[in-house]
Design brief:
The chain has helices at residues 186-200, 261-269, 273-288, 305-312, 319-328; strands spanning 27-32, 38-41, 52-55, 65-70, 73-78, 84-86, 99-101, 111-112, 119-120, 123-124, 130-133, 144-147, 157-161, 176-182, 208-210, 219-224, 233-238, 244-245, 254-260. It has 329 residues and is an alpha+beta fold. The protein has two domains: 8-22 and 165-328, Collagenase (Catalytic Domain); 28-161, Trefoil (Acidic Fibroblast Growth Factor, subunit A) (Trefoil), CATH 2.80.10. A six-stranded mixed beta sheet has the order 15-14-16-19-17-18. The chain has a five-stranded antiparallel beta sheet with strand order 5-4-1-13-9, with no helix packed on it. Strands 2-3 form a two-stranded antiparallel ribbon. The longest helix is centred in the last third of the chain and has 16 residues, at 273-288. It is elongated, with a radius of gyration of 22 Å. The two termini are 21 Å apart. The relative contact order is 0.16. The structure holds zinc ion. Zinc ion (ZN) binds at residues 12, 14, 282, 286, 292.
Length: 329
Amino acid sequence: MAVALVAPVLIFAVLSTTSVSAVDDDAVVLRVHHSGQCLDVAGASTANGALITQWPCHAGLNQQAEITETSGYYEVKFKHSGKCLDVPGASTANGVQLQQWTCNGTSAQRFTLATISSYGEIKNKNSQKCLDVYGASTSYGAAVVQWPCHGGSNQRWDVFELELWAGRLIGGPFGREYWVNAFIEPDWIEPEMRQAVSSWNPWGVVSFTETTDWSESDVDFYANAYGQTGWRGLMAGYLFTGSQVDPETTSWDYAVLRLNHFYIKLDIQNNLPNRTQSTAAHEFGHALGLAHTRADVLTVLMPTNISRYDVGGIYTPQWQDSFNADMAY
Ligand SMILES: [Zn+2]
């Protein structure tokens, strides 16, 4: 559903200098490569001794952890229980299944980790063995054990920050419609808007088709000369009543995305259509409920569009973006 163009109240600007949220107190999810499943405290138990398994990623608190670094080693504290990833009895034996236990600062609870948003092994400080999905099983609930490090894909873990607002697109991301309107240079901007949406669809976490009937639209794109506002693009969420919501706290019935020709014209002058597309893909991510990722991670939800595109040439959603979108719904 479209709305009249009024001065936006909420600015979620691509070009803003908004500071990025700190890393170390953010929730992370640990995803193993061979199965695509996540490190999970079985049954969301809060008890000492609850076992660690792999389970389809669902963004529940028993798959979220805070990681805290001390002298190069990390403590992994689960959000649902406040307890720590632990090798039972400080064992050094192969095949011992990990558990959660009251955090105690011992080396049985200290690990080396891949850096955020990269991937690698997770090695226990005491045993010098790696977190391993036993037998490279792809079954739900397969045990996460320690095993000699061998670099196999069942020992390679993505350390991934969830970057989601509390708000979402009400009704979910499948079978939805978008609508485009570029008041200025539609031949340039409209195709980039369409390609931005198309770039999300192949990940399988959203499905949008274009509509020419704005009253049916769930996401409306506009491009216009909004002036020297400081933003290339912005997203605003609205209820059907027409009232605007704060997406950090409240879900929306439909989203309005605006691209500012005042800045986009630089893309046109420099013949950089992908940079315009990047801005549109970024704002579309916001329309789904995605917050900014870290500034040093090359995603379309990086906080600054220009640095994203100019440094990394990133203009389509990356796996971190799709993972967040998947977790949002
Ligand atoms: Zn943004």
